[in-house]
Amino acid sequence: MKRYLETGNFAIAQGAMLAGCRMFVGYPITPATELAEAMSRHLPSVGGYYVQAEDECAAMHICIGGALGGLKVMTGTSGPGYILYADPYGWAIASEIPIVVLNSGRVGPVSGITGAPGQGEFYNVRFPTQGGNFETIVLAPNSAQEAMQLTIEAFYLSERFRTPVTLLADQLVTDGMEDISIPETDEEKQQMGLRFKEREICRGPEFYPPVDAIDLPPVVLGHNTGALCSDWTPTEEGYDTEEVESCHKRAYRLIYKIRNHRDLITRYEAFGMDDAELVVASFGTPSRVVKSAVKQAREKGMKVGALRLISLWPFPDELFQKKTTYLSVELNYDGQLVREIKRACPKDSQVHFMGQCGELPRIDELLTAFRGILDGKNVSVPKWQGEAW
Amino acid sequence: MDYLAEKYFRKRKTPSTACSGCGLGQVQKMLAKAIDDLDLKIEDIIWAASIGCSGRQTFGMWKGDGVAATHGRLYAMMSGLSLALPPEKRIICTVGDGDAFGIGLLHLLNAARRNVNMTIVVCDNLGYQSTGGQYSWTTPASSVTDSSPYGMYEPNWVQDGRDILRVIKEAGATFLARHVSMDGEFGVESMKMALQNRGLSLVHVVFPCVTNYASTALGSRNAVTVFRWIKSHSRHLDEPVDENTIWQTGVIYDASNSRVDYASLMRDKTQELKVRSR
What we know:
The complex is a heterodimer of chains A (about 400) and B (about 280). Chain A has helices at about 10-20, 35-40, 55-70, 80, 85-95, 145-160, 170-175, 185-190, 245-260, 285-300, 335-345, 365-375; strands at about 1-5, 20-25, 50, 70-75, 100-105, 115, 135-140, 165-170, 175-180, 230, 270, 280, 305-310, 310-315, 325-330, 350-355. With about 400 residues, chain A is α/β, with parallel strands linked by helices. With about 280 residues, chain B is an alpha/beta fold. Chain B is globular and about 70 Å long. The model of chain B has no long low-confidence stretch (mean pLDDT about 95).
């Protein structure tokens, strides 16, 4: 095991290389710049290509090209760059190309505040492109160590599901410095629960079968398979078609290859849930404060549980089936995760929202909110009057 | 069926679904003839297309592997693919004028800077014709189109002393030619040169659109009218130009194999760094 005191960006780079990433295409943007820097420094030593693109749209297209040639590829950015991925992200979803993408959240909208954490991208990563008719896979680490491990998991899932996978971090995860352990031996990798999958090549002639099966190898060009891939609705052989029946079949595949195998994707961390009268849901860095606050609350006798989502999409509805009171703690003011909780939970559950941006909630603020909710009050963040959602 | 179509193109895509009188087939034939003359193998060519008439018609046509990218981003995608492909494979792109000189120009210029090893044939039907006939940046001045009902008055990329190929040359492309689709063997020779350059080659070929361009700009849906009109506005580079000349045809710039292509550069440099890190 190699140990470092390093940033999350560095950890993600190490994870990517362990997973077999051999092309990284970057475009400088805070707070994901150090990932590109780390890749430019270390990737050539394993024979991988570092490319700096003319913009983020080109970056992900170059990634697609690399993946179409059989390489494992990655790109990384923040919100303002992620929105430029919309075009290639759609292509990669539609043509079923494995790519791993980092989105490190800062404060929005648009350029907002560059050097502070935000979670305004919860829905953006679910709907990263136009048109609908697809499901997405998104993982959300809350530490540098977990960012490394989830990067490897993202590569694994992207190969099995033939789809781009987004790693949704935030500025504190990617810029923050922490202890990181990088496994070296197979045994160490196994101990960490890391999963790996090599690239295989789809031999055709059915490159786009209308089934929900996973583990179909992706299309790779240059191997004399007669592969066809495009952004149009494909026939099973990959020809472009305007037939509505083909559109139905492909939408079924793009949605249900993921939804029907969600047990392979869903990850979460739960704490104190059994007797919880209040479940506090969060993801990313705020979940670390939430965990501390919930522990303290329980010491004070409050029946509070913490539920941290590690995989965000497909949304784990099954975790919100208990009829109880929920509180969503997020780094945004408009309330995003809370909407999904409201949709997923039993009808007569109470759902509260506590959001702010650019800085983490304090433990005492959380404890006050927990107490208030348990006493039957509606909560709102101090300095933020009225119900936010 | 044409012997070249039979040899190189898939049955599903031949004959094409292009409009009656469309000149795109002439461009495809020139390219197929150049490939045949050079005896290139089907499995060694990745055929890349994009959006619009030229994209939709040429995607899935080649018997080997085929890809169609998002509008204008093919040049970036192929920059990535070129790095991952074995050196003996080559990329041929058939794209439209809107794709190359409009929405994709940024990516095309950056691909030229990198000298990505690919042959780009810009199939120019003088506007956005698959959407019904709007002007593009190669639409001749004062042409009436569906989006220039008072005549095209926005400066284009090919007249009044501007030439988009000069821009692409300065960006670093290593082979450039321009033709009209009636050029036949003359165009085939340029395409052969383009295919023999290990680097970014671009051949700009103007072809007639009968259904939309001719109909609105020339007031006729007679194929002969637009074929004659395009031919009469082109001049061989060696011939004197006159006030009618829009397109000077022939090899505009030939620096074939004069500088390293992107994939070779990256492969060698990465190998060097890999060895150094040991």
